[in-house]
Write a structure and sequence with these properties.
Length: 245
Amino acid sequence: MSAIAARSAAASLPERIAQLPWPQLATELDATGTALLPGLLSANECAALAASYACAALFRSRIVMAQHGFGRGEYQYFAYPLPFLVAELRTALYPPLARIANRWHETLQLETRFPAEHAAFLERCRRAGQTRPTPLLLRYAGGDYNCLHQDLYGDELFPLQLTVLLSAPQADFRGGEFVVTEQRPRAQSRVEVVPLERGDALVFAARYRPGQGIRGVHRLNMRHGVSRVRGGERFTLGIVFHDAL
């Protein structure tokens, strides 16, 4: 283990998040709608989360993608109370992301602003009838994939979300790359494949990001998915900051 990785594993999760280079990450999100957080979770944390998929008591529902035309594979939404690590991720990541989200909304001349703390935003979700937790674990086997989509769930929408790869590429699975598309006005869509290692997290735009064009600022519509898994088993944690109806 490298010295940087050792320090990261030794620090608490909120400390790791506080130490991230947030100005640089904000610049990356502005430019592409994505920002990589390498090695955010340790191998042990990843293994524990992946193993929890088998504990039905932790989850409120299970979705088989093929039954809904979402792709192939399955995922489960956590129930409240969330597992400690999942709740920590949501709580600690929200404040710096809320500052970016507010700046995006100001740039796009959208009225909605987001409170500084996640608890206040969840209270706003509750007032809108969005009370069901949205963090989820996804499981893919050979031949599985996830169609391009957006995770919206209701009128209250936080414009950024997170995915964390819990399995090791090549060792645990092959294929299964994370894919982001960006639809630009009067132009063909831009596609980006984001390579991830186990423990890496990716912040990305949930619906759209601001873009600068010759006619001024406009919305760039974003979608995400996972390419076909060619072998093995791939587990992923998804963190959505708004709750569902």
